[in-house]
Amino acid sequence: MVSLADFGPEVRAEVKQVREVVASLHEQLIKWNLVVWTAGNVSQRLRTADLMVIKPSGLRYEFLTPSSMVVCDLDGNVVDGSESPSSDTASHAYIYRHMPDVYGVVHTHSTYATAWAATGREIPCGLTMMGDEFGGPVPVGPFRLIGSEAIGRGVVETLERYPKSPAVLMQNHGPFTVGRDAEAAVKAAAMTEEVAHTMWAASQLGDIIPIAQEDIDKLNDRYQNVYGQH
């Protein structure tokens, strides 16, 4: 069985750094009200080896430390860590194996996004910020049971149809988000909950006015390639 000791100093140094990043990002899930108790998880893939760092299963957020983060290979096998990895580990691993540009994955049960998932409805693109961040609606993925790579497969299959979206609402379950690193995936999770809440409120007031796809494409291009610091 492979252990972290089998890897060189460069890999071990990155594992140490990524453990610190992933542990601290779980605090952001609490800050933005995206999780309760032990629900949800953050992972980040290494750039120096086919490994990922992920939250341990069932451990309360106030007890999370860099050393409690679990290192797994991209088949979900534990490489280093004293805790059992998240029950979503196989799905995170599947996403990394099939989406080579993704280096961060987040899962939450945030209230409004999960409410849309419970109805099997996508979040319609009625806001310019949705065009910016998601390039269209936030799509719904299929119902899948927890504990295998089935959820990850559903995430990948859905995002293949919506390549600009960093988020998918897995039906009857909740949102999964991806990014160039774990921080980007956490941001996408926070943005998903924000638009889920706003679009729910809008739907209580009346019909949501959709944005034309041509305008969505322009918004997304500006946001991804012009907005912010480069």
Folded structure, characterized:
By secondary structure, this protein is an alpha+beta fold. The chain has seven helices and eight strands. Strands 4-3-2-1-5-8-7-6 form an eight-stranded mixed sheet. Helix 1 (9-31) packs parallel to helix 6 (182-205), helix 2 packs parallel to helix 5 (150-161) and helix 3 (111-119) crosses helix 6 (182-205). It is globular. It starts with 8 loop residues before the first helix and ends in a 5-residue tail after the last helix. The mean pLDDT is 97.
Structural class: alpha+beta
Put simply, the count of helices is: 7
End-to-end CA span: 43 Å
Helix content class: 40-55%
Write the element-wise H/E pattern from the N-terminal end onward: HEEEEHEHHEHEEHH
Shape: globular
Round the mean pLDDT to the nearest integer and report it: 97
For the largest sheet, list the strands in their spatial order.
Answer: 4-3-2-1-5-8-7-6
| Share in β-strands | 5-15%
C-alpha-based Rg, rounded: 17 Å
Largest sheet: 8 strands, mixed
Q: Based on DSSP secondary structure assignment, what is the total number of beta strands?
A: 8
Low-pLDDT residue spans: none
Helix-strand layout with pairing:
Elements: H1 9-31, E1 41-45, E2 51-54, E3 70-73, E4 78-80, H2 89-98, E5 104-107, H3 111-119, H4 128-134, E6 140-141, H5 150-161, E7 167-170, E8 174-179, H6 182-205, H7 213-225
Parallel strand pairs: 6-7
Antiparallel strand pairs: 1-2, 1-5, 2-3, 3-4, 5-8, 7-8
Helix pairs in contact: 1-6, 2-5, 3-6, 4-7
